[in-house]
Amino acid sequence: MAATELDQIVNLCKRRGFVYPSAEIYGGFRSSYDYGPLGALMLRNVRESWIRTMVQQRDDVVLIDAAILSPPQVFEASGHLANFSDPLVDCTKCKQRFREDHLTDPKLCPNCGGVDTFTAARAFNLMFRTSAGPVEGAGAEVYMRPETAQGMFINFLNVLQTSRKKPPFGIAQVGKSFRNEITPGNFIFRTREFEQMELEFFVPPAESAQWYKFWCDARLQWYIDLGIPAEMLVLRPHDADELSHYSSGTSDIEFKYPWGWGELEGIAQRTDFDLNQHAQHSGQKLDYFDQATNERYVPYVIEPAAGVNRAMAAFLLAAYDEDIVNDEPRTVLRLHPRLAPYKVAVLPLSKKDTLTPLARTIYATLAERYMVDYDETQAIGKRYRRQDEIGTPLCVTIDFDSLEDAAVTIRDRDSTEQQRVPIAQLTAEVAARLGF
Ligand code: ATP
After folding, report:
1. Can you give the pTM of this predicted structure?
2. pLDDT higher than 60, residue 1
3. For the chain, N or C: smaller number of CB within 10 Å?
């Protein structure tokens, strides 16, 4: 499939209730989005797929959920107060702002074409600051976390003591982060409020390089396993001048967005930087004593850091397709079943009372295990198209014969093939087709 135009996805997301512009009834709040009924389900599926692979299927990773608001000490220690900034330039001609490192030509304004019209670059700190408690001012200021990572570092000892894990082991977290981005945009790709899925994997220093390689490969494979074609993904090592203040090596997993290749996830070698910084600033010993070797050491950290929203955008873009079915064009989201908002749609052929009780029973049975849509209005062909457009892998149709032969029709989203299945075997058939 050719690179999908972003507009097609944005329109579909709005039309079908995946993503709405935020505060729309008040004229909108720039570059901020609300997730509708289908978007909320899909975000949850992205998160759950990540937790399933990164935590559930690994006995060496545990999950935490740390606070969003943090005292300044955390970000003094982490280096964010001093270093977490982007270089901001203003065009003196058209008054637009840009991130200097995003300009193709640092002298040319991409908005008005002005040459040498930029101000000198200023470091703009990306953290949101607010105050806690009734009195504003010194001592009351707190920061909204710009990444979830620090929650893992400051809880390193707590987790070590309560989980009985030892390096190599990881602490994972999924949650909101906030960055006062200079140039948010490209739909949900870059927003000021977003969700991250991060793993801090603590290893003996000598094993750092091998685990870095492991996580680069494993993270790339995660996207492929969830349906993104390998040719839309690339692993790109950072150049030395791109590295963050804490990193001794970083690779980005990049995705082929409609506007070009861009970051989907970063995998960084953070060395012992964070634990050392927090140890120094807090006065606590943040290290590990290995009883087997009688050695005390500060673990090195490998960090795969992904975005929930950015991943959702990539999954939608990769899944979007248009084809011809029964001589008519159709739009279909070929989403992996784990990511699809609904796994099954239950569709009684008619709204007549005779079919409703059976259809409702089938809905209730499937809904025990899966997110299921129930739709009884409009012609059946139209209903199939609606489900194709939101990526529902399977439709189950109940017709008047179902009352006689105790069987229903299953229709597959991708092939549109239909098969008659006994109701007694329906759950097993659905599970076999979905793969879970
Ligand atoms: P970029 O270079 O695109 O600003 P970054 O390198 O600063 O990203 P990281 O700090 O590595 O990003 O964050 C890890 C992941 O979090 C990113 O790969 C992305 O998926 C997600 N992410 C970061 N910033 C945003 C944002 N403003 N909006 C949506 N997702 C984001």
Report:
1. 0.94
2. no
3. C
